[in-house]
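Record pair follows.
FIRST:
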Amino acid sequence: MAKGLAMAYHNLSTMLDAGVPLLRSLNTIASGLESRKQKAFLALADGVSQGNPLSETMGRIPKLFGPLDVMLIEAAETSGSLPELLGLLSEWHESSRRLVRKLWSGMIYPILILTIAAFVAPIPSFILAESTFQSYLLDVARILMLFWVPAAIIILIVRLTPKTGLLRRLLDRIVLRIPGLGKAMYTLAISRYCWVFHMLCKAGVPASECAGMAVSATGNAVVANLFRPGAEKVKAGEPVCEGFSPKLPREMVELWRVGEETGTLDDMTKRLARSNAEATEFWLGEFARWFPRFVYLLVCLLLIRMIFVQFRQIMSMSGLNGLN
């Protein structure tokens, strides 16, 4: 979904920048999209034809256009920077899609190995102990449940936990402590803050509002709290970076300070966003490299355990046969 939306935003930005009217641009882009997105962009065109702001119509389609998209488009419409903001949103969605794809690339093989192991591990018992095929299937189901039930519980906890509050902070803190993945989520949150701040600056939003709005886009409540005091500082007439937590990377804070001092904060935040996005890709790559090895180790330990269990059962049966 992100790929199609990123391309649609890019094409819309290009057409608007070339002077094509918004209504005509929306209708043109819709014709090249798949069914679901086509209906959404035709709805946008219909809303614009009725004189409604683009952001207002987008807000009525929350399954495709998130709150961040709507907020940024609304700001861009007010400042007259819609083509540029659409281009930045296209980069944002493309970067997000690339990171998700990188994460999943490290998960697919372990999932496949775990599934295969569930069917292979009970075979010795099925053959040597001469158990029934029904018993074999039950053993497979037990092994699958051993892996999939905890995974399903984790996914439900992540999806059902409120976006704010104590539980969210606790969950985000746990995620940040996962080797490799935690570092990736940390740099990703910093990148998201800087990127949204940059986009809002380009939309003409005052720095005091940029700092507050960008906090909600970090995606991690713990990291968000490291940036939150910056909004209060800028409202008091001080630089945003004066409110940043000392727990944030020192080089990031110093570069931000330079941007504020030289009046190039919008460009500096873009540079920081991209450098942290690159760091996120690196750490996701490390996680994708080491997580499968961890899973393979678990599978090996499981197989060794089952071999010993089967060996004891065979020896026990041999002993009983000898007594008889």
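SECOND:
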Amino acid sequence: MKEIGVGLLGLGTIGSGVARILPANADLLANRLGIRLALRRAADLSAERRAAAPAGVPTTDDAAAVVDAGDVDVVVELIGGTGAARELVTRALRQGKPVVTANKALLAAHGAELFQLARENGAELYYEASVGGGIPVIRALREGLVADNVRRIYGILNGTCNFILTSMEQTGQSFAQALQAAQAAGYAEANPALDIDGQDTAHKAVILASLIYGQHFTIADVSVEGIRGLAELDMAYARELGYCIRLLAVIREAGSEVEVRVHPALVPSRHILASVKGVFNAMLIESDGAGELMFYGRGAGREPTASAVISNVADAAMVLAAGAERRHFRTGPAAARRLRDINQTEVRYYLRLNLLDRPGVFGEIGTVLGRHGISIASLLQKEDRAGEQVPVVIITHTAPERAFREALAEIDALPIVGAKTMRLRIVNEI
């Protein structure tokens, strides 16, 4: 039976999962593939992690030596970051070796050059584990929907944020309390900025948009808002209005343009995305052929992500064993799409204002909104504290994003407004 050698770079959380599962399921994989996958070498800077590698697997702190080894046919990059990882992936691709990676930051920042390098050297770059952990969404887009135009994707792509939001929703915790609970459970880093500020979700949105539109997008192309500043009060108001709040990646056609954005949004409570709770991820995909598809599962974690990595190793091994040419799917349309300016996006908003409770206040707010072409669909005020600041919630009709930004700049400068307005988009079209 033909044997394909695997070189593993990084023995952290995901790498240790690959190092455990690949030898443990070697016979199962051989039976299914007709090829034996052999973990030949592994590299990590940590002596402690190297010592924990499976018996019989040579380890080193020299990752380049693993890439260059003659008995390594497939390189698995699980180091993370965009520095050393970029150099090592480039090194492997220049040698014509297929690379499997879970590195979303690397692909978002340098995907265009790396995929071009792969094409020039007859190699392939696999990245199933970079979005959604063990959820096979990349494979579905590259292969299952290769005949379709993907019209839109709405994704809950960060388990940390989803855990925080659903904890606030279910328990009435503050944002700080829910974040602390996520950290205690191991779902959030000591410095959670990458997750809660939306950057992790934005990396994944870039990868998905680049795939379905067949052109490279960057982080600079994505409008990104995180979940800092959300209050338990917003959760309560959303629930009363028939919504829940989720951090969404939105990738959708807008005429001849496309929108790529990340932000918290009010989602109708009856919608299937509202049922996605805890650390789970989900992606709602609509294409012109298959219609609506839903992908759901654990978006992170050692075993789910390692499973996705090994599935790509199996893909690479099958191509190598068959002596086939590398596959370079360009799923999107041939013509490049222009990115829609976020200010031109048509949206509805939930606005929570702190207003001085006195006669004429609503008229002042309505006048400013009306001057910018924004009409009010409904208004909610519970407290009655004359002469004090009270929360007031306004649901608007659809208007351009620019109109809201200009109107809110005016509103927040009014003496009747006690704090910066909380604004959340409402997503009804899903």
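COMMENT: The two ends are 49 Å apart (CA to CA).
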